[in-house]
Amino acid sequence: MAQRVTLRKRTPYNTTSNRRRIVKTPGGKLVYHHIKKLASAPKCGDCGIALPGIPALRPRQYATISKTKKTVRRAYGGSRCGDCVKSRILRAFLLEEAKIVKKVIKSQEKARK
């Protein structure tokens, strides 16, 4: 007959926070090991891909690691991926260029009149 295994925590329900695995100890006893939830990597706010260079941890664990491990040394580092930052910079540059071109055309029309 199989050996019985007793729960180690008070929650008897099969929830995601109460997942367990049966492990045999060196003494030959079977015990439950409670498994922590898997961490999801932080995502880019624009395109939604996982941010490279930032570890996937549970929310509370980010408080224990240093700031250099939570960010990337770049504008929007730790919030947006490099491709999205590149496209943002390019978009801002092109908008400024368009404003300048508009201004030049307006001044040329004034000069003609």
TrEMBL record:
Cellular-component GO terms for this entry: ribonucleoprotein complex; ribosome
Organism: Pycnoporus cinnabarinus
UniProt GO BP: translation
Protein name per the record: Ribosomal protein L34e
Family annotation (Gene3D superfamilies): 6.20.340.10, 6.20.370.70
Matching InterPro entries: Ribosomal_eL34, Ribosomal_eL34_C_sf, Ribosomal_eL34_CS
Keywords of the record: Ribonucleoprotein, Ribosomal protein
Organism domain of life: Eukaryota
A single GO molecular function term of this UniProt record: structural constituent of ribosome
